[in-house]
Amino acid sequence: MNKEDLRKKYIIFRKELSISEMDDMSLKIANQALQLDIWDFEFYHLFLSISNQKEINTEYLLQIIFGKDANAVVPKVNGKTLEHFLLTDTTKLKLSKWDIPEPVKGIKIEPNQIDVIFLPLLAYDKQGNRIGYGKGFYDKFLVDCRPETLKIGLSFFEPEEENIEVSDHDVALDYCITPENIHKFKSN
């Protein structure tokens, strides 16, 4: 199945979820994340959910990050790239043109400072290849990160059985967390 067909398929799957189901699965994903040995790092990059796209509620993961006395970093679209800002108690957020909560301003964090990235996605396969919305923001960001930076997808759904077509610029996941499983894709 090509990327565009997979995007359409998983957008429909998400639309079929109730708010209650999404919230329950989001909490399960956060609890699954606690099983990973990833909580001794300093900088955790986390996307803030687009509610009208029925994305995973990342508020639960945000609370874990703060509970571990770690730093949460959130993205902001700047042209065709992402900028990254430390999320603090005083960070003001504003909805972008895509309804993404983004920091208005703040302390910039460089990609090479980030230890763990929780990635949004629509679909992924058993090799850790992911499909997002097709804008390429995360693929551009990931190449600027250190090779050892952990890339963790978050999904309500299990992986596609068939391999997803990949491009030269695509960066695979290390893990993907679902409500029921943690999928590991590479040796870490």
TrEMBL record:
<dbReference type="Pfam" id="PF01812">
    <property type="entry name" value="5-FTHF_cyc-lig"/>
</dbReference>
<protein>
    <recommendedName>
        <fullName>5-formyltetrahydrofolate cyclo-ligase</fullName>
        <ecNumber>6.3.3.2</ecNumber>
    </recommendedName>
</protein>
<keyword id="KW-0479">Metal-binding</keyword>
<dbReference type="InterPro" id="IPR002698">
    <property type="entry name" value="FTHF_cligase"/>
</dbReference>
<keyword id="KW-0460">Magnesium</keyword>
<dbReference type="InterPro" id="IPR024185">
    <property type="entry name" value="FTHF_cligase-like_sf"/>
</dbReference>
<keyword id="KW-0067">ATP-binding</keyword>
<keyword id="KW-0547">Nucleotide-binding</keyword>
<dbReference type="InterPro" id="IPR037171">
    <property type="entry name" value="NagB/RpiA_transferase-like"/>
</dbReference>
<comment type="similarity">
    <text>Belongs to the 5-formyltetrahydrofolate cyclo-ligase family.</text>
</comment>
